[in-house]
Specification:
Length: 304
C-alpha cells in the first residue's frame, strides 16, 4: 500500500512538473512573440509607468491638487521651476493635478472594463455553449445594445443616477459588454464540439465545469484583447463626461481639468496641454498594447 501511495505521489509530482514546464514554455513563447512588436512593448511600458505614477501619487505630487491658492502671484502661472506645468486660474499646480488624475482615469478604465468583461464573458459563454433559443435570445439582446447610442445613453443615466465615479463605472461596464460577449460566443461555438469537450462530457463533468474550466481557458484570449481596448474606451468616455460637466466633481480627473481650462485656454494654454496629452498618450498606449496582445495570442500568427 505504501509503495502504491509513493508511486501515485511520484506520478502526480511528475505530471505537475510537466504541466508547469509546458505553461512556462507557453509563457516564454507568448513573450517572445509580444516583444517583437516594439510599439506594443512601448505601450505596455507606458501603462506600467502610469500605474506606478497613479499608485505613488501622494508622494510624487509636489503640491496639493485640490487646495485653492488665490494669491495673485500664483494664478495662471506659466511653467517654471517650482511649477513645471504651471498653475490654473485657482492657483492649483497642474502637474500635481495631472498625476492625481491618472488615478481616476485608471480606476474608471480598469473597473469598467472588469464589469464589462465579467458580463460579456458570462453571457457569451452561456450563449455559445447552450445554443438554441437561449443563444438567439442573448444575441438579440446583444444586437439591441449595439444599436443603442451608447454615449448618449450613458450621459442620460449619469444625469439620472448622479455623476459619482462608481455610478459612471457601473454604467460604462453595463453598456460596454456586447463586443466581448460576441467574441466569447464565437470561440465557444468553435470549441464546444472539440474532442476534449466531448471527452469531458463522457466522464460526467457538469456543464458549468466544462464551460469555465475546459473551454473558457482556451476561448478567453480574444476577450483579453477586447477588454484592453475597453479600458481605453472607458477612459475617453469618462473624460468626455467630465468635460461636459457630468463627471464626478469631487475627484481630480483629466476630463475636469479640460473642462475648467476652457475658460482660460487662450490666456493659459498649458492648463489644457497637460491633461490633453495625458489622455491621448494613455489611450494610444492601451490600443498599442491591445494590438500587441492580439498578435501574440492569435493562434494563426503563432506558427509564423
Amino acid at each position: 500500500m505504501t509503495r502504491e501511495v509513493s508511486a501515485y505521489n511520484a506520478s502526480l509530482t511528475q505530471s505537475l512538473r510537466r504541466y508547469a514546464t509546458l505553461r512556462l514554455k507557453q509563457l516564454r513563447g507568448f513573450w517572445r512573440r509580444f516583444s517583437k512588436n516594439r510599439a506594443a512593448v512601448g505601450g505596455l511600458s507606458f501603462v506600467v509607468f502610469l500605474v506606478i505614477v497613479a499608485t505613488l501619487a501622494p508622494w510624487l505630487a509636489p503640491h496639493d491638487p485640490i487646495r485653492f491658492d488665490l494669491v495673485p502671484e500664483l494664478l495662471l502661472l506659466p511653467p517654471q521651476q517650482s511649477y513645471p506645468f504651471g498653475t490654473d486660474q485657482f492657483g492649483r499646480d497642474v502637474l500635481s493635478r495631472t498625476i492625481w488624475g491618472a488615478r481616476v482615469s485608471l480606476l474608471v478604465g480598469f473597473l469598467a472594463a472588469a464589469v464589462a468583461g465579467l458580463v460579456g464573458i458570462t453571457l457569451g459563454s452561456v450563449a455559445g455553449y447552450k445554443g438554441g433559443r437561449l443563444d438567439n435570445l442573448l444575441m438579440r439582446a446583444t444586437d439591441i445594445m449595439l444599436t443603442l447610442p451608447t454615449f448618449f445613453l450613458i450621459l442620460i443615466i449619469a444625469l439620472f443616477f448622479g455623476p459619482s465615479i462608481f455610478n459612471i463605472v457601473f454604467i460604462l461596464g453595463l453598456t460596454s459588454w456586447p463586443s466581448t460577449a460576441r467574441l466569447v460566443r464565437a470561440e465557444f461555438l468553435s470549441f464546444r464540439e472539440r474532442d476534449f469537450t466531448t471527452a469531458a462530457r463522457a466522464v460526467g463533468m457538469s456543464d458549468l465545469r466544462i464551460m469555465f474550466l475546459e473551454i473558457l481557458p482556451n476561448a478567453i484570449f480574444p476577450a483579453v484583447v477586447d477588454i484592453t481596448l475597453l479600458i481605453a474606451g472607458a477612459i475617453i468616455t469618462e473624460a468626455s463626461l467630465s468635460f461636459l460637466g457630468v463627471g464626478d466633481a469631487n475627484v481630480v480627473s483629466w476630463g475636469w481639468m479640460l473642462q475648467e481650462s476652457m475658460k482660460v485656454f487662450r490666456r493659459a494654454p498649458w492648463t489644457t496641454i497637460a491633461p490633453g496629452l495625458a489622455i491621448t498618450a494613455t489611450v494610444i498606449a492601451f490600443n498599442l498594447l491591445g494590438d500587441g496582445l492580439n498578435d501574440a495570442l492569435n493562434p494563426h500568427l503563432k506558427e509564423r
